[in-house]
Design a protein that fits this description.
The protein has 417 residues and is of the alpha/beta class. 45% of the residues lie in helices and 13% in strands. The chain has an eight-stranded mixed sheet with strand order 6-5-7-4-8-9-10-11, with helices on both faces. A two-stranded antiparallel sheet has the order 1-3. Helix 6 packs antiparallel against helix 7.
């Protein structure tokens, strides 16, 4: 049973298909949709708050517990506010290598091209169906802005479309839903391995900084990325810059020993930026290719955390910054990503535990909330259980329990789309 089961049951058990239709001449909302069956995603402006690392409002938003209704009100208020411009703290020019991605759709040309005097309309029955979908998506722990985007896209795709036969209504709804979910993941993707290789042509060592809250799998992800690069023939130095936790230092050191990386560490409570700088200096001296910096994510002292990350970023001047989120954290991971993005302008996300997330709320929302792609995904406990994130594969696995995968069509996306 998939996460959309309840919504699809509601659509199937619609007693009177005419209850979602009218015979009025509605505006041609679906003209562009009939050509591509897709709606361009609303661009999310890339902005940051002006270096307010000690801002109580921003810092507290990382891990603020809210009930669903109040959080949604805050989200909608944020969406309507004009973003504040800020100069990025990045000190290196971005050289990310773009890659094409694949989307998902269902071909319904033969259905929407049929002439009909009756059009799908925003009747009470239709709105009840949308309300059921909203509940389903919120229960999947999707971000509230992402849910609103899906509902808006569904209405744009369905309202004004010819009313099909009852047996075909399910296909039209499925097509609209897949198109709406696919649009959430439509950002500019880049290739991790090719980017590293490209950067190495001009500079070495390449510095990769991992950020995120505590418990999301940053240290394990650092080990997995290190193992991946070592398998490609590169030498790796890991910096145990999470000096707040002695356990994190020991854990990263153990991982490094197992996979053949060198670990630069200090005692608990040491200067994280100094550890990062020492790791880079050591890599330069010994001719290593990669430095991976594992940073602290403890939430009990948020102000110190943000000041520390700012200092580490300034001292290390990383080529790539990756946000690490826990796929099981759902909307919490989305809020964390949004806040870290406002401070650090990371280049992409890594989602851990994606293989255990049957609802996909975080994965469906993070790209939409930050306008940054999910680059890598953890799908197991092994060092080699780190894969490139591909939107079409993710959606296929997420939806295949609800919708027959044989009806899916793979759509190639331009890297710069």
């Amino acid at each position: 049973m998939g996460f959309l089961s309840r919504f699809r049951r509601s659509a199937k058990t619609l007693d009177d298909i005419g209850s979602i239709a009218s015979e009025e001449d509605l505006p041609a909302v679906s003209e562009s949709r009939n050509a591509t069956h897709e709606m361009e995603p609303v661009p999310i402006p890339e902005h940051e708050v002006e270096s307010e690392w000690e801002s109580t409002e921003m810092i507290d938003s990382i891990h603020l517990d809210r009930d669903k209704k109040s959080q949604r009100l805050v989200e909608r208020k944020k969406k309507s506010q004009k973003p504040t411009k800020k100069v990025s703290i990045r000190t290196r020019p971005s050289k990310l290598v773009p890659k094409p991605s694949q989307g998902l759709s269902i071909d319904i040309d033969h259905l929407v091209e049929k002439k009909s005097r009756r059009k799908i309309s925003a009747t009470p029955a239709f709105e009840e169906l949308m309300s059921e979908l909203e509940t389903t998506l919120l229960e999947a722990d999707m971000g509230h802005e992402a849910v609103d985007e899906v509902l808006m896209a569904m209405r744009a795709r369905l309202i004004g479309a010819p009313l099909p036969k009852k047996g075909d209504l399910e296909k039209i709804i499925d097509s609209a839903l897949i198109g709406a979910l696919d649009s959430l993941l439509r950002v500019s993707y880049w290739d991790f391995d090719q980017t590293v290789q490209s950067l190495l042509k001009d500079d070495a060592p390449i510095v990769i900084m991992l950020v995120g809250v505590n418990g999301t799998g940053k240290t394990t992800t650092a080990a997995k990325i290190s193992y991946r690069l070592i398998q490609d023939g590169l030498s790796v130095v890991v910096a145990a810059a999470d000096t707040f936790r002695a356990g994190a230092i020991d854990q990263l050191s153990d991982h490094a020993e197992r996979i053949g990386a060198r670990c630069i560490r200090s005692q608990r409570g040491g200067d994280s930026a100094a550890v990062a700088r020492d790791a880079i200096d050591s890599a330069v001296a010994k001719g290593d290719h990669i430095v991976i910096i594992d940073t602290a994510g403890r939430m009990q002292n948020k102000t110190n955390l943000m000041q520390e990350l700012k200092k580490v970023h300034r001292v290390a001047s990383p080529h790539i910054v990756l946000f690490v989120g826990d796929a099981l954290a759902g909307n919490d991971a989305v809020e964390q990503a949004r806040t870290f993005q406002s401070f650090l302008n990371f280049d992409g996300a890594v989602l851990s535990k994606l293989d255990t997330d049957a609802r996909g709320g975080a994965a469906l929302s993070i790209a939409h909330a930050t306008n940054k792609p999910i680059v890598l995904a953890g799908v197991g406990q092994g060092y080699d259980d780190l894969i490139d994130f591909e939107p079409s594969n993710f959606l296929t696995q997420l939806l295949s329990d609800d919708i027959d995968p044989s009806s899916f069509t793979i759509v190639k996306r331009d890297p710069n789309e």
